[in-house]
Design a protein that fits this description.
Rossmann fold; 7 strands; 50% helix; 15% strand; globular
Length: 254
């Protein structure tokens, strides 16, 4: 798919991987929906950055766990540009709880995490599917995690939700072809303040140092390196659907 003049929705794009993806799309002449749930000021900064790179933008507040919000976001994109070519399901949430702490999570935690990480992407795909099919060469990219592959990460609920997202990627790929390719990226450790705050600075630095010393590529993800792979699925890989790509510098090989 040629990104120039295409229209993409990137959920959770006020910071991190979502913001990096929006900037890359805009830098290639793409038109992008900048979605945020609460961080309107940060989203405006990203929108301004995208505009300065030559991309047209639409700022849209929406909680992907709310189906009405998902449908409204797609409708606003179609009202502005009358087309939709790509959907990046990046919005996500978690609760940082040691896996051994079985009392650290309750049913409400699972429901909240699954609401954003699993139900949200499904609702977005459902809302966008007709418009994406009309594009003729559309791409959905779900941002999962190495947590869904290895059963590690910020909490058991988070790992389970990302595993479910990987499975759902396969299911959606079967039913949305041939017009829509559906794939997932599975980042490992992503450098940034969000993870540092969640893990605690000391644990964050220790994990980062270990991975950068021991993994085959001796590096960890950045928002930009994850965005590069997302763009790869959007722009290329025309014969690929239903797959998940692990982005971890070789962490799985340890």
């Amino acid at each position: 798919m040629n990104v120039e003049n295409s229209v993409s929705i990137v959920t959770g794009s006020s910071s991190g991987v979502g913001a990096a993806t929006a900037r890359m799309l805009a830098g290639k002449g793409g038109r992008v929906v900048i979605n945020y749930s609460k961080s309107v000021d940060a989203a405006r900064v990203v929108a301004d950055e995208c505009e300065s790179l030559g991309g047209d933008t639409l700022l849209c507040q929406a909680d992907v766990a709310n189906d009405d919000d998902c449908r409204r976001m797609v409708a606003e994109a179609l009202k502005k540009w009358d087309r939709l070519d790509a959907l990046v399901n990046n919005a996500g949430t978690t609760k940082f709880v040691q896996h051994a702490d079985m009392d650290g999570l309750d049913g409400a935690d699972f429901q909240s995490i699954y609401g954003v990480n699993v139900i949200g992407p499904f609702q977005m795909v459902r809302a966008a599917s007709n418009a994406l099919k009309a594009s003729g060469d559309a791409s959905v990219v779900n941002v999962a995690s190495i947590a869904g592959v290895k059963g590690v990460g910020s909490s058991i609920a988070y790992a389970a939700s990302k595993g479910a997202l990987i499975t759902m990627t396969q299911s959606l790929a079967r039913v949305l072809g041939p017009e829509i390719r559906v794939n997932a990226v599975c980042p490992g450790f992503i450098k940034g303040e969000w993870l540092a705050k969640g893990m605690g600075r000391e644990t964050y630095e220790a994990s980062k140092s270990f991975l950068e010393a021991k993994t085959p590529l001796q590096k960890t993800c950045t928002p930009e390196s994850v965005a590069e792979s997302i763009l790869g699925f959007i722009e290329g890989h025309s014969i690929v659907t239903g797959q998940h790509l692990v982005l971890d510098g070789g962490h799985l090989l340890l």
